[in-house]
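Researcher: I've been going back and forth with a colleague about how Aldose 1-epimerase might be arranged in three dimensions. Neither of us has a model we trust, so I'd like an independent prediction. The organism is Dyadobacter luticola, in case that matters for your notes. Sequence below.
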Amino acid sequence: MPFEIFKQQFGELSEYVIHDTATENRCVVVPELGGIVRQLSLRKHLTLFSILKTPPTPQTLIDDTKSAGELLFPFASRIPDGKYTFLGKEYQLSKNEAGELNAIHGLVRKQQFHIEEQEVEADYASLSLSCGIDQPEGYPFKVHFRVKYTLFADGRFTLNYQARNEGSDACPVMFGWHPYFVLGNEMLDAWKISIPSTEIVTFDYNQIPIGKAPFHLDRPALLHQKAFDNCFIVEQISGKVVTQLISENQHVTLNVEQEAGKGKFNYLVIYTPPARDCIAIEPLTGNVDSFNSGDGLNILAPGNTAEGTITLSLT
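Model: Here is an independent structure prediction for Aldose 1-epimerase. You can compare it with whatever you and your colleague have in mind.
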């Protein structure tokens, strides 16, 4: 079989590698740091592209505060002042954003994930990991969170998440992924982007939604001199939505496909860091601050599950 999964050390961290020996495509996962993907390499023709930007050393990865590659659950983005109301009750989360203004990016960041399953088949290999949430401060619910990473022989990479309510009360859940993408050694200004949206979320001074507005941008549009730190409501013409990041100089396009529709990934955050050496393309199942607004929020009855899939590919 061309696929293999093996364990290796990255400094004091242990990581698992999903490897396709036929193409050299690989995915490197660090269970003890929130189950993040540290490296993802995909081939187009003769070129193997390393498409994720993450901190380069074990210590900088541990110390990272920019959420590179992190899984954001049971909420993503900001909750103002860490306060939310759910089914008539008020809750207070830890204000963990810089400056302690808001709660941000969930409760599984940097947490230990456990390997649940490894699969190696002729045309794919996958690694499933999980982390339990058991009534932490500000979120008195019990949820089993699971993520499955899969590399396919045709070059696709998928991230599938599942959240199951294991408690006795209904609970709110939202999921997002926070990867920073690169294409070769080019800077962001050389790329084009196609954003599958005609509606943008408007923010206040604290990056909290206050409404929605029409959004018009060429598809694709050159990123040169454009800056984004925005949330978009994606088009739901079909059950799948694709954001494209295009390098015409290298003749390669990164396709970030998210499931859309009821309970799926109906929101998208685009962020261009000041260094302009990468871009964050973040599929979300709910709007920023959905714990308060309810926009896109999944409410799970006891025993129920929410799930969805993100697919990456190069063309």
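Researcher: What would you highlight for our discussion?
Model: I'd start with this: The mean pLDDT is 96. After that, consider the following. The longest helix spans residues 58-63.
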